[in-house]
Amino acid sequence: MSSHKVNKRVGSVMSRPHQKAGLEDAEKNTDPQNQEILLAFTLTGLNRSDFFSQFFPLHRQIASRLIDYLISIDSVDKLLQISSYGRDFINPNLFNYCFGMAVLNRKDTADLLLLSPAETFPDKFFPAEVFQHAIEELTVVPEGSRKPILIDIPKMATDKYAEVRLEYFRHDLGLNVCYDFWHLTHPFEAVKREIVDLDRRGELWYYFHQQIIARYNAERYCNGLLPVVPLSNFDEPIEEGYFPKICTQYLLHSWAPRFDNSKIRDLHRPYEGLVVNKTKFQRWIDRICNAIELGNILDDKGAQIPLNNDKGVDHIGNILQSSVLSPNRTYYGDICNIGHAFIAYCHDPENMALQAYSVMGEPSTCTRDVLFYRWYAFLVRIVQNHKSQLPAYTKNQLGFDGIKISSISIENGKGGKQNQINTSWDESDFNLKNGLSFQPDGDIFVRCVHLAHEDFQYVFDIENNSSSQQTGTVRIFLSQKNNVRDRELTFEEIRMLMIELDRFPVNLPPGKNHIIRRSTESSVTIPSKNIFEPDVIRQSITSKSNVDSSYCLSGWPAHLLIPKGTKEGANFLLFAMVSKDDPVVDPSTKGSNDGTYGKCRSASSYCSLPKRKYPDSRSMGFPFDRPAALDVLSLHSYLQPNMKTLDVTIKFSDK
User: What total number of domains does the chain contain?
Assistant: First the structure.
């Protein structure tokens, strides 16, 4: 069967998940050997109308068993037949997660293309009123004459609520899809350990979230707000309320709000496997914090594992999120995920009102909530306590003998001002047709207003003063120079605010080297077209590609690469360095791992590469992943010849 036909069946299996399929494949499934697997669909323990969350331990265990069943099916054809039938008997959220996990982890499904989570469950990504407009358009207006449904920057509160200034970021479709898909490609629970045991997975979990917080703080700076305050005390009332204004299509059930000054209370929801009190939760936090201070953690046999090395952050990441890779889940608990549950159920911790969780309960919706950023700022701080125990990088570790960055500039091809990046609002259309739970069907687009920037390029002049060719890695970061009160930031403050813009290998022959790198080539991002037009992307990928094409959705959205800036022009500092690194040799490729993968350019900085080693031998975030020596008080005093800074203006046009 052709790749096109197989992927069409995949789309049929995943689309309109709330409707009974009634597909042709369902009637073909008469093989008695498959009955045990079909039984697994009907005995998951979750009703079709229940919510499903990877953050909840019981839900993860249910999903792990079903994923294992789907992976065990002996052919792609049988997988699609059984899934076509089984999806009618299972919770749709659970099914799409498990089916996606099976496709990503089977050896014979590399060419299958998953639908975007926003295609299958658009009600998690778009306001409730969009679907009322969609019903009207589909019912009254013939296909070909329908106009896109405009979604302006959502306004969830009045201007008296300062956090409303960041809604363009928190509610951005690209951010929400990125975070949801990251959890599909980086699971933390599975029957087969190798599914979770990705290279440096715990460290990547930390770095991804550290960068989200750094980017959020950059947006806060551009909107006149101080950095986010970590949520470190679960006994104090939560000042920030949140009213999501999204609604499930199939239940017409609004997601639960959180009122100002809500309190977090002990959880007692046995049906979801959530029975935990705050005292026990705090004990988990104290244990990992004490272990970091001592420099050792305990495994489940009582043996000590040293932390103060390059592997320590990987152990801590796996402990905080409590993956199956955690050295001791019983002792250190499930801090990150249960923290989500505490916040998600603060409105109904004992299920007395029979209320489902709030948006903090799912990866697809949690980045909408202001409290997400406070919670992860706290978790990032825990890991940074570990990083502060490590020795500062030496000049030898930071330097590169014979290499000097003579100059760096930012240019754009539209005759714009040098070293200025221009941002503005842009519009992109997204097709809802694969996720609607009502008839009639057909194309119906929603027009999203989102942040965007003009494409630009970095221009480097780099000298190699040695007598031989040198190979290195160019690393580019961006940070604000001052705080909102216009005070110049110290090195330590800048270090925690640095956002990675790009990382790429470079070969430097002796003499002068002129290097141009386009912003669209960033190792951090995927094209925004992948987010807004996933159906077009799927059609453009052929079966001859040697890539797990599903990873085309895995990466930071390109339109959010650069912070918003201000109308007057926000002052930022660009940092670039050429580091001398050991090549990453990947046994699976029998060669150097340079960060590319087939036709689908992977955003490897935040998402690594599918089933391969992380393409960088240095610590993630190097050289800003740990504090500098005590005598380094400013970024200027940190610089070496292989480093360079540049004052950059980010100017926003509100049109």
Answer: 2
Q: Residue 70: which domain range?
A: 3-112
CA pair distance 585, 651, nearest whole angstrom: 41
Strand partners, 447: 150, 429
Q: Is the pLDDT of residue 42 over 70?
A: no
User: What values do phi and psi take at 162, rounded to 5?
Assistant: -60, -35
Handedness of CA 95, 101, 107, 108 (dihedral sign): positive
> What's the CA gap between 394 and 413, in Å, rounded?
39
Residue 372 placed within a domain: yes
Does 264 map to a domain? yes
104 and 172, same structural domain? no
pTM: 0.93
**Are 463 and 406 within 8 A, CB to CB?**
yes
User: Residue 271 domain-assigned?
Assistant: yes
Domain assignment of residue 430, yes or no: no
C-beta atoms surrounding 516 within 10 Å: 10
8 Å CB contact between 246 and 357: no
Predicted confidence (pLDDT) per residue in 554-596, tens digit: 899 999 999 999 999 999 999 999 999 877 655 554 444 555 4
Q: What is 580-599 written as a DSSP string?
A: -----EETTTTEE--S--TT
pLDDT tens per residue across span 143-194: 878 888 888 775 666 677 889 999 999 999 999 999 999 999 999 998 899 9
Is the same domain home to 338 and 203? Answer: yes
